[in-house]
Specification:
By secondary structure, the chain is of the alpha/beta class. About 70% of the residues lie in helices and about 10% in strands. The chain contains 12 helices and 5 strands. Strands 1, 2, 3, 4 and 5 form a 5-stranded mixed sheet that branches. The longest helix has about 40 residues, at about 205-245. It starts with 10 loop residues before the first strand and ends with a helix.
Length: about 375
């Protein structure tokens, strides 16, 4: 009721016509103190019948930012009904204020209600599941295309691109040897030193050889190698394929009658599958060398004792279990890298995003594959 009795609040009153145009007068105080009342008035005023409307501001007693915003709101409300609305009889201060408020209003984003937590969680989970299923189908489709390409090469081996295979093997394997060997050497030394330190409380420092030998040959060697290859070669593959997609080179290959799977994807993935087992062997030897040196320095263990204990601790099936995992991990890395590369759209932001996604997915799936093999080997008694 207090608002209805607010006689000083601003309002709009009709002022007749001038030259066929409707004229209205803004009167009273258009300030924040009366904003509630003015807003109610603005909502209730119907636009004049004329399409050309002028609003005179000469009778406004006071105008602040709230009043200016309500005047602009009234103008917008009437313009949406098909009329053209002009402010007339303005002072210079009124004009500056209305211009400033109009400019600021253009930059303000509309407020959207935040999603409710439960419904937002359900929507997000549903989107994750949908994306996961789409990615799984895409990987299966790509695997089928690669199997078909492999079958075609068996029928026509002369069409196989050996130079491309050798090039990718050198880039993926030979140039990766230093970093793989160095990282494995350091990690092997750390595991051995920490293992010997913890076992020293039980007087069992020599058991560190058994621990590091089994751990490296069965899991750590191939896992670390696959993670390093995911970050190094997998990301490079995604960036290469994504760049070709952005430059429409893949479409150009199709136009000239070449299959992109044969030319681009198959040699890269085959190179990964062939190279990763050799990198794993190098990583195993580098890790064991690091462990050997660490134990020699830390507990003065001779090299003969180290080799003797390692030979007893690691039977051949343990070593082969680590090597067998490598081609499967390489296939997973290659499929994810190619799939993400083919999903790149025409922007550098898309390229960087899919390259990052490729590395994250590859590392996650490599760990999953290692876990699956751990379960299988345990069930087989190895």
């Amino acid at each position: 009721m207090a608002d209805l009795l607010d006689e000083n609040a601003g309002s709009i009153v009709p002022a007749g016509t001038l030259g066929g145009n409707s004229v209205s007068r803004a009167i009273g105080e258009w300030t924040v103190a009366h904003a509630k009342t003015i807003e109610r008035v603005v909502k209730s005023i119907e636009a004049p019948a004329s399409t050309n409307i002028a609003i005179s501001l000469k009778d406004i007693k006071e105008l602040d930012t709230s009043g200016a915003w309500l005047l602009l709101k009234l103008r917008t409300q009437w313009m949406q009904k098909g009329g053209s609305v002009d402010f007339v009889d303005m002072t210079q201060e009124h004009q500056h204020l209305l211009t400033a408020i109009a400019d600021a209003a253009d930059k303000v984003k509309l407020h959207t209600e935040p999603r409710k937590r439960i419904s937002g969680f359900i929507i997000m989970t549903r989107q994750w599941l949908r994306d996961g299923c789409a990615d799984a189908l895409r990987l299966v489709s790509l695997l089928g295309a690669l199997a078909a390409a492999f079958g075609r090469r068996l029928v026509t081996p002369g069409a196989f691109r050996f130079p491309a295979l050798v090039t990718h093997m050198m880039r993926t394997g030979l140039t990766a040897v230093p970093i793989v060997a160095l990282m494995s050497f350091v990690i092997g030394a750390i595991i051995a030193q920490q293992g010997a330190y913890q076992l020293s409380f039980y007087g069992a420092e020599p058991m560190a050889v058994d621990m590091v030998s089994v751990l490296v040959t069965r899991d750590m060697g191939v896992l670390l190698t696959a993670i390093m290859v995911s970050g190094r070669s997998g990301s490079a593959y995604t960036a290469e394929i994504g760049s070709m997609k952005m430059r429409e080179e893949i479409d150009a290959l199709k136009v000239i009658g070449l299959d992109p799977v044969d030319v681009l994807l198959f040699p890269r993935i085959l190179a990964l599958i062939l190279v990763l087992p050799f990198l794993t062997v190098i990583a195993d030897y580098a890790s064991l060398l690091g462990a050997q040196i660490a134990l020699w320095v830390y507990i003065d263990m001779s090299w003969e004792i180290f080799l003797h204990r390692m030979r007893d601790a690691v039977p051949l099936p343990y070593f082969m279990m680590g090597i067998i995992k490598a081609p499967f991990m390489a296939l997973i890395i290659g499929l994810i890298a190619m799939s993400e590369g083919l999903k790149v759209e025409g922007s550098s932001e898309s390229l960087s995003r899919h390259t990052t996604i490729s590395v994250v997915k590859s590392i996650f799936m490599v760990i999953v594959v290692d876990g699956i093999f751990a379960v299988i080997s345990a069930s087989l008694g190895y």
